[in-house]
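batch job 7 of whatever, protein = SoxR reducing system RseC family protein
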Amino acid sequence: MIEEPGVVVAIETDGVWVATQRQTTCGSCSAKAACGQGILNALSADKKPHTIKVQSDLHLRVGDQVTLAISEQSLVRSAMFVYMLPLLFMFIAALAANTLSLSEPWIILAAALGFFGGAVWVRRYSHRYFDEAAMQPQVVRAQIALNPALEI
């Protein structure tokens, strides 16, 4: 299970809204001063928390600290679906155009259209998997706040 800490920011009848802060491993790396990724992370404008709705049977309050988890298998499957499928469509379209002996600009156009078509296909059919229980994060631990205060 891949875990992420968060804070409950809102409560609804069918779940809770949890805010998480994107974390990187750059803070513990000894090469962060010379690494381009560390510099990009420091300059990143995406410092605000991300909120996600999670179903939970626990009696949580606003300000409680929770740990969310999702299985590695579902995360890898989702990543393969989102990243690899458009690339697969792109290569199939480019190979089909090449097989038809089209000129290079047409092959490039076919590849771009294949990538776009794959991205549209992912967008249209990914909603089928949103409601699967395996694809949803779960609250695995909760620290009930005595004096709820948001520290995001």
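notes: The longest strand covers residues 2-12.
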